Amino acid sequence: MNSSYWERTALELEWDAVIVGGGFVGCWAALHLKRKKPHWKIGVVERSAFGAGASTRNAGFACFGSPTELLDDLSQASEAHVWGRVERRWRGLSLWRSAFSEHDLRWEPLGGHELFRIHESDLAQQTQDALPGLNRSMKSITSQGEVFRAMDQLPGKQWHSGVKILGEAQLHPGKALFALQQACQSAGIHLLFGADVAPFDRWEHTTAGWLLPTSRGTVAAERVGMCTNGATSGLFPEWPVVPARGQVVLTHPLPSVPYRGTFHADAGYLYFRNVGDRLLLGGARNHFRAQEQTDDRNTTEEVTGFLEQYLRDVLLPGLPVSVDQTWAGTMAFGPNNEKDPLLAQHKPGLWSAVRLGGMGVALAPVLGEELAVGLMGE
Ligand SMILES: Cc1cc2nc3c(=O)[nH]c(=O)nc-3n(C[C@H](O)[C@H](O)[C@H](O)COP(=O)(O)OP(=O)(O)OC[C@H]3O[C@@H](n4cnc5c(N)ncnc54)[C@H](O)[C@@H]3O)c2cc1C
């Protein structure tokens, strides 16, 4: 079917700035930009009908770092670098909270937890010993005297010990993205859904700016912010961004859920939380690293089977457990597993804010703001 003349010309696709990718980062970037430059015409181009990137496929942990993750980071990078990253995540969570209500986000301040199994007693002890130091560093960021506290009650005999993470929460990522997109629309930002932007080799750069072919017409903009995270390598193959699939299983409602809040286990490689009376479990990429380096969003039996087994054997032993839903989403890391985002100017008027790793909920508002500042400087 051909498009009519009216359909082709109904949309005005000439903007001062275009953000490609309508996930958390893209929408936050557009919102910050509009607040700072209210007279600019700003558009967000999103290939799906709502969002089908990591922002609507994640586990909804509003987290800033578990003790084992922070200790691992501190063994590889300077204190300033690690705590600077945590400070950005903490600030990002505050930005969510100040822009939206608890109801909008379905924010549940149930706290986070890191659990250790019996065979992890050495790691558990090292972590417990490090808590006073971690709390001292966190205090300068959060003004809270205590963020990490040894748990006095454990959710089962299979656990050796655990650490409660005060300040960690959970949200509904789909509702959060919906609220964010509504805020963009109310601010006068044009959201163009169902528009797939073509790879960079089909773009043109003219004296007026960039021309981006999309499946809904050509977008013209002086400035472009790429917020395509795990899909970036398909558009800019030479950028140092590697896709990484994450898979998740969700149980049917359970008669009782022994876990309320967000939980990190296996040194952060597994994460689980309650979703009402269900349990969501994801991760285990460390066991399937090569095959999970993909932007394919289909689940695999190997990974969902592994997760289901962990549910039965470790999380809910002796209980009848059945999985209701499974899904996968795409994260992005650096080629050497870098965790820091790729916030960079690549060409005149062309910026990226991609590569958020596994903790983009907290980072997105801050990275979006940094991208807006970059685009404004052009
Ligand atoms: C299974 C899983 C669990 C996770 N759990 C958590 C968690 O609990 N807590 C946490 O903090 N983080 C978690 N993450 C990571 C977090 O979801 C991401 O870091 C974050 O959502 C990235 O946001 P984004 O806006 O950069 O990317 P995305 O949400 O992926 O947005 C990119 C957007 O670009 C669009 N796009 C791509 N290509 C094109 C194109 N050619 N044209 C137009 N549009 C395009 C996509 O459709 C997508 O909507 C998880 C990720 C996964 C996959």
CATH class wording of the domain at 5-57 and 174-240 and 338-376: Alpha Beta
Summarize the helix and strand pattern as letters.
HEHEEHHHEHEEEHEEEEHEEEEHEEEH
- The CATH homologous superfamily of the domain at 5-57 and 174-240 and 338-376 is termed FAD/NAD(P)-binding domain
Ligands: flavin-adenine dinucleotide
Q: Low-confidence parts, pLDDT < 50 over ≥5 residues?
A: none
Terminal Cα span: 40 Å
Count of DSSP E strands?
18
Q: What would the principal axes of the Cα set say about the shape? A: globular
Total of DSSP H or I helical runs spanning 4+ residues? 10
Helix content: 25-40%
Q: Would you give the CATH topology of the domain at 5-57 and 174-240 and 338-376?
A: FAD/NAD(P)-binding domain
The main β sheet shows up as: 8 strands, mixed
Detailed description of the structure:
This protein is of the alpha/beta class and 378 residues long. Among the domains are: 5-57 and 174-240 and 338-376, FAD/NAD(P)-binding domain, CATH 3.50.50.60; 242-333, 2-Layer Sandwich (D-Amino Acid Oxidase, Chain A, domain 2), CATH 3.30.9.10. It has 10 helices and 18 strands. The chain has helices spanning 5-10, 24-36, 67-76, 79-99, 102-105, 121-142, 173-186, 232-235, 301-315, 360-376; strands spanning 14-20, 42-45, 61-62, 112-117, 148-150, 159-165, 169-170, 190-192, 204-206, 209-214, 217-226, 242-251, 262-265, 270-275, 278-283, 323-333, 342-347, 350-354. Strands 1, 2, 8, 9, 10, 11, 17 and 18 form an 8-stranded mixed sheet that branches. Strand 14 and strand 15 form a beta hairpin. The chain is globular, with a radius of gyration of 21 Å. The two termini are 40 Å apart. Residues 20-26, 45-48, 51-55, 57-61, 63, 196-197, 227-231, 235, 246, 248, 282, 329-331, 356, 358-362, 364 line the site of flavin-adenine dinucleotide. Flavin-adenine dinucleotide binds at residues 20-26, 45-48, 51-55, 57-61, 63, 196-197, 227-231, 235, 246, 248, 282, 329-331, 356, 358-362, 364.
